[in-house]
Specification:
Helices cover 0% and strands 47% of the residues. It is mainly beta. The strands form two sheets. The chain has a six-stranded mixed beta sheet with strand order 2-10-9-4-5-6, with no helix packed on it. Strands 1-3-8-7 form a four-stranded antiparallel beta sheet, with no helix packed on it. It is globular.
Length: 118
Amino acid sequence: QVQLVESGGGLVQPGGSLRLSCAASGSIFRTFSIYDMGWYRQAPGKQRELVAVITSGRSTNYTDSVKGRFTISRDNAKKSVYLQMSSLKPEDTAVYYCNFSPSISDYWGQGTQVTVSS
């Protein structure tokens, strides 16, 4: 069974930081290192959007709104992907998910809620 489990969300004040984690499990992830992985988010009333991507070669790419504030990383030995978020803004409030890049619909997890509010 393939699972992607996100954690690390919470309530944070504007300007604060959070580090999200995504742990992968299942037979498909025996070769986790070969997959491009992404962090996505869905804000209330909006479509899910791709926030950051890290390739198998560790190249990274970000949506414009988070460039310079978010950093995606991976630990292949732990089969995990991380999203370090800093200088958080209220508009970053959303449920954050990890998935392959491009995403595969069968593998969406529960996500982790990030709320940025004073």
